[in-house]
Design goal:
The complex is a heterodimer of chains A (121) and B (679). Chain A is of the alpha/beta class and 121 residues long. Helices cover 45% and strands 22% of the residues of chain A. Chain A is built from five helices and five strands. The radius of gyration of chain A is 13 Å and the shape is globular. Chain B has 679 residues and is an alpha+beta fold. Chain B folds into five domains: 129 residues, Four Helix Bundle (Hemerythrin (Met), subunit A), CATH 1.20.120; 107 residues, Alpha-Beta Plaits; 57 residues; 144 residues, 2-Layer Sandwich (Heat Shock Protein 90); 132 residues, Roll (SH3 type barrels). Helix content of chain B is 41%, strand content 22%. Chain B has 22 helices and 21 strands. In chain B, the strands form five sheets. A five-stranded mixed β-sheet of chain B has the order 6-8-9-11-10. The longest helix of chain B has 28 residues. The radius of gyration of chain B is 30 Å and the shape is flat. Classes of the chains: A alpha/beta (121), B alpha+beta (679). The interface between A and B is medium-sized, with 17 and 15 residues.
Chain lengths: 121, 679
């Protein structure tokens, strides 16, 4: 069964890029959220296998959203998508429970390499 | 002799110097406290480390001295009794000689005979029973690893991160989390924090106490993204001190603090987060200076870019501004990081002082001990360097003038041993350094008398001073509390120099004193010196900067209505107080272009005296990187530094104290400015 992904990013461009990468690799994109509040709601509703999480977003940051998601489900797999130079934010997100991270700008294979590893494939 | 071109030579010199500097203060402690095992171990380890590294590089004379000293140390420790002064002297002699030898190595000079010293050390050792090596080999019972599971197997773990890793700090944090999930993480180096912002590849070594099998640990780590290589093996149960430094090249790049921790036996359990974040890499000090200069240049460049966009059409400027702002933030962060890389612990200043105090005490026939608090408080390297002389001066002063001789102290009901306390503490962006003695305290009456005698102020003015204000008189040139100038600290000469130095760093000195209780000099210093907030003022065609922390306020006033302005004082009312006003144009012999009428005044305060300087125009405010003046400008009174403005033009920075002197305001303490021409 294909793995189900929730893509969280406030930039449509990033969401589209990630959707293409995941679709091409045989994942199912279960949903997309463009802010942290929506991300938590969709996670609760969709129970995806994987969440890709932007850090800086309106209403609720990716870090706070990650913290809430991990509280809902300690086995949740959340991969942060951070821009170069946001290392301290990424580290904060890891402390908050994020599973791993990828650094933008990324290539499809970078994303998939990390995702496959964290999903244990 | 040795292969002086050995690639570890610089490292050896730096490390050995650090050990020897630390030895100086540890040897002093031998005399003061009943020496405990950890102190002996540390002394032994330092000597041993110097010997080991020197041996690797083939510096036989250093090895000989260190070896002989090490033997003596081992026997003294085993003796467990009182240490004779002569024995400590001998160890000092050995340390001093080693310092000289290291200097020779540095200068590539040939060795001269050290046989006599080695003989004397050997004789002293022979006079003591041989403890064997056991005494120093056994792990000290005083330093058990504070873990809950000291008996768990320990694994040495090495994790190599891939070169493409864009955020090694974050990656290391994930590795750390994984390790912690499998056992007790005793050590991790470098820490995630240390790896932050460092591009590409990293080698992390860790010590893990765990029941998890090595294979399992390896697999768990290999499964992490961006982990290129993992090596997991059982750690040796204990590491005898003999086995390590002697035969190998010196252990690479560890700070003295880490040597303390790791040099011997079982490494203590330290949560990796608490590992000291500094000193994983040695960097030449000049390299950091250059880096700082360049970071400053980048900031200037960006400031110039901002200036340039102002001349662009609004639409174009609006497009550029966000990017420039981002660039500016990054550059400022870069500058901040370089600044913090330059931070140096207070201990680098104080390490040599206990030795100096010991020698002083012997020379003055006094008993004194010295305590250093806050040795790990960090200051900018520039501050540390500039502080060396003033601090040594204050300590000498306290030892000489402050502390009484043992008889006097006994009569006063004090312990015959005087106490000097040197402390550093950080409060937000300031560091407070205090030199405290428990001696006789300052004599306010005598200071008033001296100030009057040296014509610094009138008798009435002196009498009007509170005791606290009178203590500050000690900063006046030529005022001292003791009549007998001594060989050690002279006649109080130099307190004014201390004040000058501290103020040139943007700091302040104050004195607290109580009769028969002691005196404390408080140095309030900025964390870093090179950034300053400046008020830009214009006179004629020239723009000058005034350090904002000296500016009380700016105001506008029309003096021309009262008969022009000039070098000589006029007055204006500031906050209900009459303040003398001077013209900057006149002071620097510049043509003033401002029309008659109201003009801006900058009100400053030096030593509690307020004065106003008139300028043609207030230009604005700028954060700037200050650089020292170069000759011949450094001789111009009233100037303190130079910087480069956003528009690329150099800017001279005014020195408020110098201006006050130019104006003829004598730098006497509050409340009464005694008018006396000093210019």
């Amino acid at each position: 069964m294909p793995k189900r992904v929730l893509i969280v990013d406030d930039a449509l461009f990033m969401r589209n890029t990630l959707r293409d990468i995941f679709s091409a690799a045989g994942f199912t994109v279960a949903g997309e959220a463009d802010d942290g509040v929506q991300a938590v709601n969709l996670f609760r509703e969709l129970k995806p296998d994987l969440v890709t999480m932007d850090i800086v977003m309106p209403y609720k940051s990716g870090i706070d959203a990650t913290r809430e998601i991990v509280q809902l489900d300690p086995s949740a797999v959340v991969v942060m998508c951070s821009a170069l130079g946001q290392e301290s934010l990424v580290m904060e997100a890891i402390e908050a429970g994020a599973t791993d991270f990828i650094v933008k700008p990324f290539r499809g294979e970078d994303v998939l390499a990390v995702v496959k590893k964290v999903l244990g494939e | 002799m040795a292969s002086a071109s050995h690639k570890y030579l610089t490292l050896f010199i730096a490390e050995a110097s650090e050990h020897l500097a630390a030895l100086q203060s540890e040897l002093v402690r031998l005399e003061q406290e009943p020496p405990a095992a950890p102190l002996w171990d540390s002394i032994f380890r330092r000597m041993h480390s110097v010997k080991g590294s020197a041996g690797t590089l083939g510096f036989t004379r250093i090895v000989d001295i260190a070896h002989a000293a090490e033997n003596l140390i081992a026997r003294l420790k085993a003796k467990q009794g009182k240490i004779e002064r002569s024995e400590v002297d001998l160890l000092f002699a050995a340390t001093d000689q080693l310092v000289k030898e290291i200097v020779k190595v540095e200068k590539k000079e040939e060795d001269e005979s050290t046989i006599t010293l080695v003989d004397r050390l050997a004789q002293a050792a022979q006079a003591l029973p041989d403890p064997g090596t056991a005494a120093l080999r056994t792990p000290s019972p005083l330093q058990p690893p504070p873990t809950a599971e000291p008996t768990l197997p320990r694994l040495d773990v090495v994790v190599v991160l891939s070169k493409s890793c864009a955020a090694p700090g974050a990656r290391a944090l994930i590795v750390q989390r994984k390790l912690k999930a499998m056992g007790t993480l005793l050590e991790m180096e470098p820490t995630p924090a240390q790896l932050m912002q460092q591009k590409g590849g990293a080698r992390i070594s860790a010590l893990l106490a765990t029941l998890t099998a090595t294979d399992e640990v390896r697999e768990a780590l290999v499964a992490l993204p961006e982990v290129e290589k993992v090596d997991v093996r059982m750690a040796p149960a204990a590491r005898p001190p003999e086995s390590r430094p002697r035969d190998k090249t010196p252990p690479p790049i560890v700070s003295p603090a880490q040597v303390n921790v790791r040099g011997q036996v079982t490494p203590p359990a330290v949560d990796a987060d608490e590992l000291r974040p500094e000193s994983t890499v040695r960097v030449r000090a000049e390299a950091l200076d250059q880096l700082l200069d360049q970071a400053a240049e980048v900031m200037h460049g960006i400031a110039r870019l901002r200036e340039a966009t102002k001349r662009l059409p609004d639409i174009a400027a609006a497009r550029l501004e966000p990017d420039i702002d981002r660039l500016r933030r990054t550059a400022r962060e870069l500058h901040g990081r370089v600044m913090s890389a330059r931070l140096t612990p207070f201990s680098s200043l104080t390490e040599r002082l206990p030795r100096a105090v010991r020698d002083l005490a012997h020379r003055l026939g006094k008993q004194m001990e010295m305590e250093v608090l806050g040795a790990d408080v960090e200051l900018d390297r520039a501050v540390i360097e500039a502080l060396g002389d003033p601090l040594a001066h204050l300590v000498r002063n306290a030892a000489d003038h402050g502390l009484e001789d043992p008889e006097t102290r006994k009569l006063a009901g004090k312990s015959p041993r005087g106490k000097l306390t040197l402390s550093a503490r950080r409060e937000r962006d300031k560091v407070f350094v205090e030199v405290q003695d428990d001696g006789r305290g300052m004599d306010a009456a005598a200071l008033r008398r001296k100030a009057v005698q040296s014509a610094a102020m009138t008798a009435e003015d002196a009498a009007a001073l509170s005791d606290d204000a009178a203590y500050e008189l000690a900063f006046l040139p030529g005022v001292s509390t003791r009549d007998d100038a001594t060989e050690v600290s002279g006649r109080g000469v130099g307190l004014d120099a201390v004040q000058r130095k501290v103020e040139s760093l943007g700091g302040k000195v104050s004195i607290r004193s109580a009769r028969a209780k002691g005196t404390t000099f408080v140095l309030e210093l900025p964390l870093s010196v090179s950034m300053a907030n400046l008020l830009l003022v214009q006179v004629g065609a020239e723009v000058y900067g005034i350090p904002l922390h000296r500016v009380l306020l700016t105001t506008e006033y029309d003096l021309s209505a009262r008969g022009g302005e000039g070098f000589e004082a006029r007055s204006l009312v500031v906050m209900g107080e009459l303040v003398r006003a001077y013209g900057l144009a006149k002071m620097f012999a510049l043509p003033s272009l401002a029309p008659p009428g109201p003009r801006p005044f900058v009100v400053m305060e030096v030593d509690g005296i307020r004065f106003a300087i008139s300028v043609d125009r207030l230009v604005g405010q700028e954060e700037a990187v200050l650089k020292p003046l170069f000759p011949p400008l450094d001789r111009v009174r009233g100037l303190s530094g130079v910087t480069v403005l956003g528009n690329g033009r150099p800017l001279l920075v005014l020195d408020p104290r110098g201006l006050a002197e130019l104006c003829g305001i004598h730098s006497a303490p509050k409340p009464t400015p005694a008018a006396k021409g000093a210019a």
